Every structure is written in C-alpha cells, then in structure tokens.
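To whoever is covering the structure queue this week,

Two jobs came back overnight. Logging them here so there's a record in the thread.

Job A:
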Amino acid sequence: MRGRSILTWLVGGVLISTLTLLLLLAALPHVLKSGLNQWTPALLQQLDLGEGQLHIQHLSWRRLHLASFSLQQSNSSQIELHDLTLQYRVSELIRGQLRRLELASIVMTLTDEQAEALQQQAGARAAQASEQVVSDTRLHIPLLSTWFDFPIQHIDVQRISLQHAQAQANVQLQLDDQRWRLWGDVQLSQLDQPWQLEMQVQRHGELLLMVSEQQQLLMQHYATIRQNDAGETHLHLQQQIDTHAIAQQLDLPFVLPIRTVRIDSQIQLLADSLLPDDLAISSQWQFSSQPTTVLDELTWQQGDLQFILHKAAHEPWYVQLYNSDLALQWQQEESEHNSIVQLQIPASVLRLECSADIKQCHSQGAWTLHAQAEAQDSEATIQLSQHLDWQQDSALSVVLPLEITAKMAQHHAQLTGELIGLLSPNGEWQLSSIDGFAARLNWHHDDWQGDALTAQIAPAFYVRGDDLHHQIEPLTIDIAPFNVQQTDAQLHFASTHLHCQPPLINHQQQQWYCQLNGGFEQGQWQQWTLPDAQWHSDWQIAWPLKQVHANLALQVGQQQAQLRARLQHDLEQQQGQLQWHLDDTPLHWQRLGLPSMAALTRTQLLQGHMAGQGWIDWYYWQDAWQLKPDLMLRIDGLSAIYDNYLTLENSNTLMSIRRPQYGDYRIDTQFTAESLDPGIPLTHILARAQLTLPPDFSHALLDVYEVNTQVLGGRVHAPHVRFDSRRDINAFGIELSNIQLSELSQIEAAADVHATGSLDGMLPIVLTPDGPTVPGGNLFARDPGGIVRYQTATSAALGDTDPTLNLAFQLLQDYRYQILETGVQYEPDGRLNLNLRFQGRNPGFFGGQASHLNLNLEYNLLDLLESLRISQQLIERVEQRYQ
C-alpha cells in the first residue's frame, strides 16, 4: 500500500514536470520576443554599434516575423529592414538549416565617410590578394555543387535599396539550391537614365553578368564552369564591353577612342592548387577603336590593340601586346592658317616573360612614334626601346634606349641616349644615365648658315629616392662651340655650360641652384665689330616656380668692361628688381680690342673711363609691365675726335635715369669739358639738362637749364633751352658777352686784320627739321669802342683799281670806332652773313672827320671751320697730345 502510494506520486511528479516543461517551451518564444524587443537597443549601444530599434511581431517554433529593424551609426549611415519572415522546423533548426527567408526591403544609407572607408577596405583586400597570388598560396576549390549547399533553402528579398549622394541602387535578390540571381536598377548621379543590372549563377556551371540601359547592352560577362571527377576546374570566360556607350552615358570630359573590348579567357585549376605555379590560363583581349575626337583639338583616327596572356601549368608566363597602325591627329586653328599634326605609331609588339612563380620577369620591345605637321612641312620620329628585368628578392631594372629625330623645313634635330631605372623591394628607386643624352641640331635659316649645334645633356645623370624623399645629383648640359654666319655677319659662340644642383625633393617647396656660363668670341654684324664677351651666372629658383634669384658677371672687350648684376623676381606677385654695377671701363678702342670701331663710328677715343650703377624695379599692372629705374652713369676724363671735325678734351658727364612715382622718365645730365673745338675752340664748358620721356616714349621734352662756355676771349651763356619733339619749330636765345675782336680778327690770320674792342649781344636760335638757323641776331661793341687796322698789298692793289674801295681801305688803315653794330644771319646749309655798321674816324683821313662805314661779309661757316682745322693742324696736334 505504501509502495503504491510512492509510485503514484512519482508518476504524478513526472507528469507535472513534463507538463510544466511543455508549458515553458510553449511560452519561450513569447518570452524571447519581448526580451529581444526590449533589450536590443541597449545591447547595440553597449557593443558600440549605434542606435537601433527592433520590432518582432511574431516568434514561434516554426516562424519568425520581424516587422522592422533600424540601426543608425555615429557616422550617420543607416540600415533598415522591413517585413522579414523566416520559416523553419525545430528539427532542421537544430541541424543548422532553415527553410525560407523572405524580406520585403533592406534600405542602406551610406555617407561619404563610410563609402570612402569601404573603398579603402576593398583596396586593401585587393592588394592583399595580389600579394598572395605572387607568393606561394595553396588554393582549394570545392565542387560547384557544394557552393549551393546553403543553410537556407530559399532566400527572396523583394527590395535592396542603397542610398548615397553619388549612386542609388534598387535591386532584388533570389537564392535557392539551383540558382543565385540579383537584378534591378542602378542610378549614378551623372546618368540621366538608370542602368539595369542582371547577375546569375547557375548550379550547372553558368555565370552571367549584364549591364544595360533601356534596350542598349553596355556590358556582358558570360562564363561556363566545368569540373571533372578529379576536381579540376575549367573556366571559360567571355566578356564584351561597349566602352564608347559607357563613356557617353557617364559624360566624361574626354571621349575614349576604344569602341568595344572583347575578352576570351580559358582558366584551368586543380582541386588543390599551388598558386601561381599550378595555374593554367590563356586569355585574349581585343580593343577595337573608331575615329573619335578625344579632346577639342585631338582626334583618334585608327588603331586596334590586342593583349595575349598565356601560361601552362608549371610553365612561365607569356604576355604579348600587339598594336596595329595607330594614327592620331592634332589640329589647332589659328588666325591665319590651320596647324595640323599627324601622329602615327606603326604596328609593334611588346613581349613579357615571367617565371611560373612570378619571381623573375623579363621584357623587351620598341615603339616608334612618327609625327608630321602638314602646315609647317615638318616631321619627327621617336624610337623608344625597353629592356626590363625583375626578380622578387632584388631590384627591378629597366633600360630605355631612346632616339628622337625631327625635321622641320630646313632644320634637322636628333637626340639619343639611354636611361636606366632600378626599383628595390623596400621601395627605394633610382634613375641613371651613364653617358646622358647626345643632341644635335642641323639648321638653316634664309641666308644664315652655321655649324651643327651639338650638346651633351645630363651626362652621369643619377637620381634616387623612396616614398618620402627624392635626391638628384647635379644636372649638366654642355653645348659645344659653334659658328653662325651669313654674307655680312659672323657670330662665334663659345662653349656653354649649365650646371644645376637639385635639392632634396619632398612634397613642399624646393630650391634649385644653377650655374650658366658661356660667351662669344669676337664677331661681326654687317660693318660692325662685335666684342668678345663671357658671362658667369648663378641662379636660385624656387620650385614650384614662384621666385627666381640670379647673380650675373659679364666681361666684355678683352675683359675691360665688367658688369655685375643681381636679379630677383617673384612670379606670384609679378614684381622684381635688378641691381647692377659697371666697373671703371677704359674708353679706348684698342684696349677694348675693337680698333675698327674708330672708322665705323668716325670717333677716336683717346682717353677716359666709364662707370655706372643702379637699380631697376618692375611690376605687372593693368596688362603691362611697369618699370622704375634709378640709374647713375659717369664718364670721366673723356677725350675724343669725331669725324676729323670736332675735338673734345677732358670732358666729364654725370647722368641719372629716374622715374618718380612710376610717372614720366627723367634723365638728368651734367656735362663739363675743358675744350670742345670744331675749329674755333670752346673752353670751360658747363651744361645741365633734363630729358623727360612719357611711359610710351611717344615724344621727348629736353630742358637745358644752363649752358656756359668761353669763346674768343668772351663768354656764351644760354639761360634756358627747351626742345619739344612734338613741335616742328623750337627756338631759344643765347647771350654773348665780352667777345674780343682781337681774337675774332685772328680767326683768319692770313687776312691780316687787326682789331680791338669787345662785343655783346643776343643770337636767336631756331631749330627746324632742316637744321639750326639764326634769323636775325645783333652784336654791339662796348664803350669806348676800339680800333680796326687793315692795310695789305692786296688792299692797295684793289684801291688802285677802284676809287671807292681806295677810300674805304684808306679809312680802315687806322679806324677808331665808337659804335659797332653787327647783324648776324645763319642758314642750315652753313651760309653766314655779317652786316657790320661802324661809326668812328681815322685821324689821318680827311682831318679826322667822323665817318660811317658799312660792310657786308658772307662766309660758309662750315667751310671756314674746316679750313681753320686744316690750317691749325688741329686734329694732328690733339692726336699727338694723347699718344
């Protein structure tokens, strides 16, 4: 009885426990549903995934219905799910299998920050994958049928929406054990119409990817995958891309000349492959083109490309790039004519061979570019060869022999050389050229002829660097001496040397230091002798090109003239300065090595020195360069003879050139001289003048503020002289004071006229296009007058023939005058007329009665001065003085 009672309680307890467990299992989905809805937001925040909401509408042992789920991350990206239904069975769920997943929509909103992060992650994964291919990587390829053994038997997503500022996508997704399919629309921001996307993978081994717009097919990829019982995989891939249509739809700033791209590839892999050694591939890429205007002035005319890749298992890689005859045309419309350049690349082949493990590669090939300009009758050919060697554990080496030939009209140029490049595995690289590049230019211009211009460019060129810094050894260009001549000109260029020390290059501003040295030998230009010259210059250039600093030393005329200059220019501010200094330079043709200049200039430089210094500022304003000079030029002790006509002795000139406040140019000059002698000596000369020029140099205004000189024992003074080039007539007056008749009468010593007294007066000077004139000047004798005595055998003989002349000659034998007036007239051709009016007496003539005497004298002043120079042997005496 007691045992039966215990058994009854045991059975009852088991039934109650079982019933309780069943009740708990029945209530578990409801408990989980409430817990997940409540705890999900806090859990997402705790995991730092963002802010989210979860709404489970139904949860049972056979079905899950998720009404909505949203997640917003800190970068403002957002994910939303709506109406998710998941069907399953408990027995299948325990084995990790689900029956069916249906989803109404997934909406993903990406910010620019997250899109960039995803792009970087994809790039990093691609780089990692490429490194694995190069290295020995074991790849196991499962059977295609196992790819479809998915935990969920069927997936159906009605809408997957991707929202981004640059792209939007709305697609559908279906997956089952026979086919994977993704299709829908993709809208890019630069497209007017969306693109249709269709992607399928079939269980029996077919893959399809299509991109189209409306009815136009833009891209299609079709592949068949076959696997045998041994597990070998054979992939046949066919691709076709309409690049021309894609470029048009994307509205690129340039147009691709490639019309279509066709790819046909055969790939074979073992079930367990060691990449890349076990890989077998054969691939052909066809790029077909059509006549296309690539840019505004560049047109692609013809040409196709073919890329072939071949590799057998355990065999090297072979790559070949073929191109047919390629042709481009560059046309530029100018005001007078059109300039058309035809560019042609003949058919060529580039070959690349790599070991099976891609640890060693070698390539060779050559290209020829031929350019012809129709308008200028010119052509150029560029031949570039390359030899490449690469090993995984050592440097990549590339040898590029280069030859460029160009012909334009009667000019022919050639450039040859070889460039060597090395790239080490740690990222260090270097470029070098042992002999540099040899350049040669044969030219001819009209009646000019000359030697071929030859230069050696960058001999011993060397540059090296890494990801952060670059360093270049000094760059040099040497131009050999050459001559240029024509019928009446000869130019002799000395050797020219350019030496540049590039800086340690980083990604900021750089400073280049260069030296440019060269010169000329003595030459000839028409009848002029060109002096020899040598220059030495140092240049400091800020790159990117912003500032230029330079020092220049110039030596001319057997190193007698030495000029030093310093230049600074700011390209951003468009302003600069030039400071210069000219050392004392002898003014002597022989010392300057220019003896022929005396005959050419008709000027003999006997002695003297010239020196100068100054500063020039400039800046760009209102579409024109504005100059502001502040210059000083000094000539000391100059003695010279001009055209055997004029002698100048011991003269000094001080000249300044200024432009105050960027207004008119002003040239101030002060001139002194011991003597200026055209036949009648002018001594103790002093003159001060200012020349004013407008910025456009359209006219000139000369103001001579003071002119003083001594002549014939007296003084000549011009208080103010103004000359305006805009006027045809300019006039001024000069004052004469205390001119001694005794010296005036001795001008023609052979006339044997003796006179005393002093003259004062004023001469008006009128400057005309024909020359200077004196329309009517007057001179007056000072009180108390003077004496005129004229008695020669000639006067006596003339007096015997003419009684009137006899009376005049008798009066002039001892004429004592109290009043003397002289009228003066001068013409540009040299005619000088003197109208003399005397009032006085001769004590021995008519009892000393008062008498009046009028004389009219005419001379050619130019002839008179020449005769005086000859009679006085003026030129010979001055030459002997400075020998």
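Job B:
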Amino acid sequence: MSKAIWEAFSDTFGYNVCHFDGSYLELPGMNEDIELYSYQRNAIAHGLSKKNLLLSHSVGSGKTWVYSAIAYECVRLGLSKRVLFVVPNNTLEQAYEAFLTLYPGAREDTFLITPKKEFAKAVRQDTLKRISEGEASFIFMAYSSFDMLKMSKLYQLKKLDDEITVLRHEIAESKSRTLTRMLQTQLDKVEKKLEKLEEKYEDDTDICFDSLGVDFICVDEAHNYKNISINFNYDNIVGLNKKGSKKADDLMDKVLFVRERGGRIVMATGTPLTNSLSDLYVFQRYLQSDDMKLSKIFHFNDWVNAFAEPVTEFAVDVDSVHGKFQTRFSRFHNLPELMAIGSEIIDFHQTKVGDDEDITLPRFEGYSDILIKKTKSQTAYMDNIVKRTEAIRLRKVTRDEDNLLLITIQGRMAAVDTRLLQNDLRDISSEDKLGGRKIQACAKEMAEVYYKYPGTTQIAFSDIGTPKEDFNVYDELKKELIKRGVKEEDVKYIHEADTEAKRAKIEADFNKGKLRILIGSTMKLGTGTNVQDRLIAIHHLDVPWKPADMVQREGRIIRQGNMNEKVFIYRYITEKSFDAYSYQILQVKQRFISQFLMGHVGEVGRSEAEIGDAVLNYAEIKALALGNGSVKERIETEILLSKARTNQIKKAEELLKLSEEVEEIPDKINKLRFRKNRAVSDGNFYRRNRRQLDKLTRYRLGAEAIRMMRESDHLEYNKYVMIYMGFRIFIPISMRVEAPYLIVNSHAGSIYNVDMKDVWDKPMGVCMRIDNLLNSLSDLPGEIESDIARLYAELEHAKTVLAQGNPYDNVVIELHQKLEELDKRSQYEM
C-alpha cells in the first residue's frame, strides 16, 4: 500500500527543482558597455527556456534589464513577434529608456504609448490601429492604458461557454457534496453572465486586445495584479476574498488568450507575496495553470489541501488593547514539492552583500526605533476606540453606524496625529491641541541627519495624511523641519509632480543633492523610483499594510548605486497606540512570506512554520507599542518562544550532524590507517627503487609525456605512459588539455595525482614534479597520523555534545506552557 501511495504521489508531484545557466548567452545587439551579473544571465536563460516566467528578483536588482533582454532575444530569435510591456504609470518612460539603454539600436522598433498623449480618448482608436497594423515589435504601455483594453465580445462568449463545459464536467466527476455545491453555485453565476451577454450582444466596433497581434506580455511590478477572483470553500478565514478586482481578472483573460495561442508571459516583481498566502496560487494560475491541472491543484481548495493549512492564533484586536483568536492560512507544508513545481516558472534572486560577484550595497546596521509617548488626545481617542469596539462586539450599533474597518482606519490615523481626525473626534474632549509628537520626533531626527551629513538626501514615508487643504502630515512635517533650520527649497513632496516631466526633474535634483528631503507615500515614491544615489536615511512615519510595502520603501535605500557607505532607517512608534495592531498585521503576513523565501533559497524542509528575522522584528515593535500588560506579556512570550524554536531547530540539526559524524568517524579512521600502511609501503618501495637519471633521459621521458598528454583529450580509458622509479604513470580518462595532470600508481594500489599545468614547454619539469611527489611519500604517514588524531578529538567532542542533548528543548516546553496559560487567561478575560 505504501508503495502505491508513493507512486501516486510521485506521478502527481514528481517535479525536479529547475536551475538555469546563462553563461553561454552571447546577447547580440546589447550595449557593449553593460555587463550583466550572472544571476541576470541565468534568469534570461530561464525566460528563453520557459514560455512563462515570474521574475522574482529583489528590489533594485535590475529586473528591467532582465525582462528587456528576454523580450529582445525572443523577437531576435523569431520566438515572438510583438511584445507588450505593461508598466506602472510613474515608471513608464523610465522602463522605456532602460530598454533603449540596453539595446540602443532598437529605437526604431519600439512604440511608447503615454496615457495623456497616445491614449487620450480622442486618439485612442488611432493608436490601437497603429499598433495592430504597424511593424513595431516592442510596445510600452502604462497600467492605466492597458486596463482600458478589453477583450472582444466574441472572445468573452467563447470563454463563458468553455467555463460552463468545464464546470459541468467537474460537477459530474465530483465525489464531494461540498465541492459539488460550490461548483454548482459557480455554474449558476457563469450561466447567468452568459445569458446577460447574449441578450446585449453587438459586434465590436472598437479595436480590442485580441486584435493587436500581441504574443508576449511582460508585466512589471506584477503584484499589483494579484487580486484575481478565487473560488474556495472555507469559512471565517482571514485574508481571503472570493471577488477579485476587475483589472486583475481582465489581465487573466489577456494572459490566457496569449498562452492559448502559444505566446509568452513574463511577470516581474520584487515582492511576489504581498498580502495573502493566496498570492503564490495566483501567480501559478497566471503562469502554470496547465501543470496545476495535471497535478490536481488547479482549484484553490485542492491547492490549500496540498500545500497549506489553517492555523488559529492569538491576535491583538483592532482596539490595540484586547486580544482575540483568528484563523488564517499561515503555514506551508509539502514545501519541496511546492518549490519544485514553482521553480518551473519562478526565477528567484535576493541581492545581498557577499555574493560571488561585485555587488555593492550600503551598510545597514539595524533600525532606529523611536518610541513616542501618547498625547492626551491620543490617549482619549484610544479609550474611545476600546468602547466603540466593545459596542460593535455586543452588536449595540449597526454597521452603518460604526464598524471595525472604520475603527482600523481612524486608529491608524490617530497613531500618527489626532489632528487628522478633528472632524470626527465624536465626544472626545482633548486637553492638548498640540498632537504631532510623532511628526516632531521625525523632524528632529531628519534635521540632525541633514546637518550631520551634508550633500546627502532623506525620504519620509507616510501613506496617512497626504497633502490637502486641511491639516495634513506633509505640511506639518515641512513646517517642523523649517523650524529647525532646514531650507524650505530643500524639501519637496513627490505629490507635487503631477506630470512625468516634473517627476523626472524632482528625481534628478534629488539624486544630484540639489533637493535634500522628499516626502511621499509608498504608492508614489516607494515603487519603481531610482532615487538612491545620495540617500542616507528613510523615515517610516506610519506603518504600511503589507510587508511588501515595507520592502518597496526600504528598497529605495538598500540598493546598488547608493554612494553612501552606511545608511539609516528610522521607525516611529506611538506607544500604546494602533501601531501595535498595524505591526501585528505585518507580522502575520511576513510569516508565510519568510517561509516561502526560506524554502526557495535554502534547504527545503517538508513543513515550515518558523518565523524569519523580519517577523520577529515586527513582533518586537508590536510589543513596544502595546499598552495592555497581559497582552504585551503574551506577545513578548511569543517572541521568546519563536526565537527558542529557531534555536532548537538549529541545535537539532547540529546534533543530527554530530550523530552522523559519530557513526562515520570510525570508518574514516580505519580508511586512514589503511592508507597510512600503504603510504609506508610506497615510501619503502621508492627508497629501494630510486636511481639517478641523466638529464637527457629525464628530458626524453618528459617530452614523451607531454606529447601523449597533448594527444589524449577525451580518452575512453586511462592511458599508460611509462614506468618511473618502479611506479606506473598514466594519463587519466578525466584529463582535459586545459587542465592536464598525470596519475602515479604504486605497487600497493595507491593512486596519486600530479598537476602538469604550465609544463607544456618544460619536459624537465614533468620529471621534477613526479620526483617532488615521490620524495614527499616519507612525510605522508606522519600527516595521515595527524589526521587520525584530529578525528579522534572530533569524535570525543561530538560524544560530549550529544550527551548534553538539546538545551533549547526545555526552554521551548516552558515557554509553550506559559503561552498556553496566558491564552487561557486571555480567553477568560475576553
């Protein structure tokens, strides 16, 4: 039975991890002054070998050049005819120029479509006609333009009809009542949608996407299109939505259209998992749906059953004081199979200092966390949030009157500055009108860096309180900076750039140091911008919703091309405020992201639930911000338990390795003793057979060996050369002329290698190197004896360490028991 199960499992998930080598690529047409890194060349090879690719390279690693090269090579080789690059609006021209920098001769074969010019309503159809009838192979289009492109009504009818056929087949094959009900509900929706479309059907007059001749779509920052509609059969699971966004569902249609016709898809992002475990499933649906069907993981329910599991965990409630238990998918299992299947379409790379290549990143020595005491107004507001949350829990108010989403939004605003909520303070009477301690703290730190490091630049990030006529964070921060002597002309908002030309000027001035401080949001400043040249510090005034947003923000500074040797990142946390809840959201989401990245870059375990450094870091900040003592104790205990479990696993791996060594060392010692005996015999044999050879003889022997080595590349067996001092000399089967060597066989059966590199024109050198080896035989027994003594010492050390056991086992048990006690207490209190 076990054999049958294993065979069925292998048939379904029998994938090997894919690796690609791009060292052979010649890349004709590419700018000769540009030298790509090996990981970029490997990714290009991956993109050429596979029709669908998720380019998951870290922020700032040069993804634009990689996908540009893949596209150019596909067109040059005749694999594709027309490539459509879909790029965020704010980086459209930047991506276009990057392509032309890499391939300066391709300008005549490109077409840049700007939203306000080529895609304005009055000329849009003319532009689409130019594409469909034109010769351009490379089309660059902004998100906003691409999202307006629709599929033809004829395509939509066929798609719905195909969906109905598939759903009816799946219902007929289904053996699960639950799955059948879910499929039937989906079928009813699709049938109604088809009926509605047929009733209003008219032939298309506008040019649609499927008429443009595109056979290669490349989507940059592809995580922006992850929110596709997903059907699943789980209740009360946090972080999942059945209804996706229109733009993501439309992209899925366009991707499937291109794939069905044998086209290619490349999706690039530095943050493949941004918000939910389902993000990985989404990318597989975009790029790997055929394999998913073969492996029976196409439906989300099946995918979850294979690779994930729901986990119920303690969580800080939105009032940042109380706690509750939530269920979400936050643990991976069957990671080797998930990574192997994913490696078909995912090219993963994390740029870091210490790579084999000369990749230079600025030194970052950890975060500067600035803990800020609450103002009286913030204290009053948080007290009010506790009351409002309780009223919602007890259903004393309707959703229209108050709800947790509204509390979440307002709580995040209050953690920054309650003056953002002056129009919605309800019955709160605040004694202090100052607020703004977080803004003041940020201004203080920015001013100190401004004076201490002249010629450098800084960024302050805030997604809350963006510029408007009423009170806002940006104007207040600027006012506080000016108070501290920062020149007004040195401070700009990225929001001031309402055109691409203005944005380009701001970025250029910032990189030159003409502008010293930029204030912006994640969306406008944290994605796709190259402003790293002089950037020495960034400041997080608020907490973004997603770990990916934090990665994008910090990707502006920890980036190649930054001229500073050292950089700083400041985080501002209002104690006992909503910052605790916000950092908890990052903690939970970062957990499964860390598991995915650890599984992809390291040795994959079958199940991963450990928390990576980023998760622990977020958890520690969350503990800083919490006000409720028991909740804070619970979080701090969880942090200690997570660290102890990590140490426990590391120690267990170390002990397992030592246990294997204890078993292997005796065999190694026996082999060394046998080798020592042969070395003694070889030394004695050499002393008996050693004789003097005249120079001519030595020259002739060396010259003959060189001749034979030159003629002996790719042998089918070891080739005999001569007898020398009683030892037989051979040219080995594995020898190559670029790395020549000989092997010396002794009467006792020993084999010694002799390097012959750099002796092609030195026949005397051949004999000299063999002599050196034979003369060293007398020292070999002593060297082997030293190795034996070292192994005995290692064996004793390993036995001592194993006898001590894993010191973290008891720590984990104690902390786990404490956590259970705290959870019982929390449930009682709730």
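Note for Job B: The CA atoms of residues 301 and 529 lie 38 Å apart.

Please reply-all if you pick these up so we don't duplicate work.
Q.
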